[in-house]
TrEMBL record:
It comes from the Bacteria. This is Permease subunit MlaE of the ABC-type intermembrane phospholipid transporter Mla (MlaE). It comes from Commensalibacter communis. GO terms for molecular function: phospholipid transporter activity. InterPro entries: Permease_MalE. It holds the Pfam family MlaE. GO terms for cellular component: ATP-binding cassette (ABC) transporter complex. Residues 1-20 are annotated as: Disordered. The keyword Transcription regulation does not apply. The keyword Disulfide bond does not apply. The chain crosses the membrane at residues 68-88, 94-113, 133-160, 238-259, 290-309, 321-337. Keywords: Membrane, Transmembrane, Transmembrane helix.
């Protein structure tokens, strides 16, 4: 190493610099790069080659009235390519995740049919996961449903009564609360309370080598880990969804009845709500909760099990949350189109 005459380093600093350079060279050797000068020369040659390719493309443009526009477009595209590569990589990663979730979902459905799949370990994992989903999310769902009842149901009943549109209470609550608000809020509770926990558990198993150990012992990690959690999330989402809808309507009725806005009994109120529901609502609303819970469970497991070497909790957990929100929005949009 060469230093200028007017700059001197302490022995400790020189030692640290030497260790840093040696570490960098050792990393290069691991990548198959034995000569640093040759490596730098290859990079320069590559840059020169790219510049020459750009000049060749510019020369291939035929002379004409709009030739200068074509050249500007070629230059802009040439220098924007790195940005386009990054955008394309991120876009492909999300589509790859969606396709992976669909493939894993199909695998769960196929494997669930076989009686051999439901062995003692799988049943135990299913019961444990179902208890975590339902019992762990009950109080969060109850509290959120209470707030939704106070904010949505009571206000809708109050202002519709003030406007003389009491008969529209049932259809509006079904459209706003039952179809749209309830599935999204339950999905977010399920994701934040149990989905992130599942991502963490699966990532620790993957990074700790337990998944490979299960494979070596002849145990399929997909059947042991993904399948029971997917069905636990499915049943838990349906259960929490029914709790949310019933609680929010009840709390909204209690508030409006206490204020004197609602004069009907609780049974008449629920009867009007049920009468406002169509046949499609009785099928699609529960199915929406079921599909949303199933997709969140599968997506959380896939995100955790496909952890990379450079992933850390600071990057993995936001990734799991973002992907879960994306799945919730996709399911909600698809079912909204059906309605």
């Amino acid at each position: 190493m060469k230093y200028s005459d007017d700059f001197e380093k302490k022995p400790s600093e020189q030692k640290e610099e030497q260790n840093r350079v040696e570490a960098m060279l050792s990393d290069l050797d691991k990548d198959g790069i034995n000569d640093l000068d040759q490596y730098v020369e290859d990079i320069r040659n590559r840059e020169i080659d790219q510049t020459q390719r750009l000049s060749v493309q510019l020369k291939l443009v035929k002379d004409g009235r709009f030739a200068w526009l074509q050249k500007i477009g070629i230059i802009l595209f040439w220098y924007l390519r790195p940005i386009l590569y990054v955008i394309g990589e991120k876009t492909r990663s999300y589509f790859r995740f969606l396709l992976g979730v669909l493939a894993a979902s199909w695998g769960v459905l196929v494997e669930s049919i076989s009686p051999i799949t439901w062995r003692r370990t799988v049943k135990y994992e299913f019961k444990r996961s179902l208890g975590q989903v339902v019992c762990g999310g009950f109080f969060s769902t109850f509290f959120t449903a209470t707030l939704a009842g106070l904010a949505v149901v009571s206000q809708a009943i109050f202002w519709l009564g003030a406007a003389g549109l009491t008969k529209m209470t049932g259809p509006i609550l079904i459209t706003i609360l039952v179809r749209e608000v309830a599935p999204i809020l339950v999905g977010m509770i399920l994701l934040g309370r149990n989905g992130i926990l599942t991502v963490t558990e699966c990532s620790l198993l993957a990074m700790g080598g337990q998944l490979k150990s299960l494979t070596v012992m002849g145990i399929d990690p997909f059947i042991t880990i993904v399948l029971p959690r997917a069905w636990a999330f499915t049943i838990g989402s349906f259960t929490l969804g029914m709790i949310f809808g019933t609680t929010s309507l009840f709390m909204g009725y209690v508030v409006t009845y206490a204020l004197g806005t609602m004069q009907d009994s609780i049974w008449t109120f629920y009867s009007n709500i049920l009468a406002a529901m169509s046949v499609a609502d009785y099928v699609l609303v529960p199915l929406k909760f079921i599909v949303m819970g199933f997709m969140i469970g599968v997506g959380s497991c896939i995100t955790g099990m496909n952890v990379k070497v450079n992933d850390e909790p600071s990057t993995l957990l936001p990734k799991g949350f973002t992907r879960g929100i994306m799945l919730i929005m996709v399911v909600n949009i698809l079912f909204t189109l059906d309605f």
